[in-house]
Specification:
By secondary structure, the protein is α+β, with helices and mostly antiparallel strands. It is elongated and about 120 Å long. It has a five-stranded antiparallel β-sheet. The protein has a two-stranded antiparallel sheet with strand order 6-9. Strands 7-8 form a two-stranded antiparallel sheet. 52% of the residues lie in helices and 11% in strands. About 5% of the residues have low confidence. The protein has twelve helices and nine strands.
């Protein structure tokens, strides 16, 4: 097993595949109803050709299985069967026709011309957080549909997610997929595979796909898969046997802390960071049990972000009103003081200037005394202590923490 492929052939078979890919100038056979136009690529077990439906003009991809030696036909037939079962969902690549009894066998699927998510990440390295979250949500929706049909993918990775128009993701390559009641082990791809999956005696579980989809989101946010570094890669490359390699992979993941490099990005909020961390927990008991739980947390995050302006208004608003009222009140008192003094002085000049001046000064002193008394009261330790006590109330602290988590 390598870190980017999960289906294998003998060295002779691989050499034959490479030779066929170089010599692929004509399709292996005709496919009724379709015109094959160009060679797309070759894998361990055959070739993929791009063609067109003669009736509708729709672009298609035709996958031929050419190498019967060493091929587990039950696994390949299961891949086609599972794809056909899932074809109702727009986030899963659509299978249009199956020629299982043809020579060579083939199946026809929709042509997804946007390349893979792996191709996109090799070019862009990272995605903006909003784009990564939207891509992640759509992948989860497709995966949730698969799980609802009882199909576990078991090998999710960016290379197995094809991109349609406007980068709409399509889940593809169900060669390692299992039914939920199947106890047959299925090996995924290193650094996208849950640690407990790296065991030739493990039974498939929905939490395997949870770990893998979390690793994909981590890759979109950081530019690299979780846990992958030169030290671990060196340990795996020198392991020797497959059994030893899987054992070293399990140990490396379970002994390492949950990856947190995604927090380096300032625009990764705390809610999103927790979703990534819970997906990537090495302990299946801590990890999300299924994809539906991820979607629920994404919805809660959306609701919290929508409430953020109201929460800010609920706390900052009263403070601003209090400040504005205080400033307005102080200015009003000063203005009233000046107006009253001026009026009394004018009146004094009309009747008894001396008495009016005395009265004005007395009133001015009283107004100043009340103003100084109010200002002093606001600075007393009791008032300050009461304000601090109010800020320590649990509802106020929860509101402030919620605002801080949204950054």
């Amino acid at each position: 097993m390598s870190d980017d492929r999960t289906q294998h052939q003998t060295s002779g078979g691989e050499s034959a595949s490479q030779k066929l890919s170089l010599e692929a100038t004509t399709p292996p056979s005709e496919v009724p109803g379709y015109r094959l136009q160009r060679f797309l690529g070759a894998g361990a077990f055959g070739q993929v050709w791009v063609g067109r439906d003669l009736n509708t003009g729709r672009g298609v991809a035709v996958k031929f299985y050419l190498h019967r030696r060493g091929v587990n036909w039950s696994l390949l037939s299961r891949e086609v069967k599972n794809l056909v079962q899932l074809s109702a969902d727009r986030h899963v690549v659509q299978v249009l026709e199956v020629g299982w009894d043809a020579e060579p066998p083939y199946y026809v699927m929709e042509l997804v011309e946007g390349g893979s998510l792996e191709d996109l990440l090799k070019t862009r390295h990272q995605l903006p957080v909003s784009e990564a979250v939207e891509m992640f949500r759509k992948i989860c929706l497709g995966l949730n549909h698969c799980h609802g049909k009882g199909v576990l993918h078991c090998d999710l990775k960016p290379a197995n997610i094809l991109l349609g128009p406007d980068n709409e993701p399509r889940l593809a390559d169900f060669g390692q997929s299992r039914m939920s009641d199947d106890q047959t082990p299925a090996l995924g791809t290193l650094f996208y595979m849950a640690p407990e999956q790296a065991d030739l005696e493990s039974a498939p579980d929905a939490s395997w796909d949870v770990y893998a989809v979390g690793a994909i989101l981590f890759r979109m946010l950081t530019g690299f898969p979780p846990h992958r570094n030169d030290v671990i890669v060196q340990q795996l490359d020198t392991a020797g046997s497959l059994h030893k390699r899987l054992e070293r992979y399990r140990d490396a993941i379970t002994r390492s802390p949950v990856p947190d490099e995604h927090y380096v990005r300032r625009d990764v909020d705390r809610s999103l960071g927790r979703i990534v961390g819970q997906c990537l927990s090495a302990d299946p008991g801590v990890r999300y049990e299924n994809v539906q739980q991820i979607l629920q947390d994404l919805t809660r995050r959306d609701e919290l972000r929508l409430r953020r302006p109201l929460m800010l208004l609920g706390i900052v608003g009263p403070l601003l009103i209090l400040l504005a009222t205080s400033v307005f009140g102080a200015r009003s008192i000063r203005q009233a003081e000046k107006s009253t003094v001026a009026a009394l002085r004018d009146e004094a000049f009309g009747s008894n200037q001396l008495a009016a001046t005395f009265a004005a000064r007395t009133l001015e002193s009283e107004v100043e005394r009340y103003f100084d008394l109010a200002r002093a009261e606001a600075q007393t330790p009791a008032f300050v202590a009461q304000l601090k006590k109010t800020l320590q109330l649990e509802p106020v602290k929860e509101s402030l923490d919620a605002i801080a988590s949204l950054r």
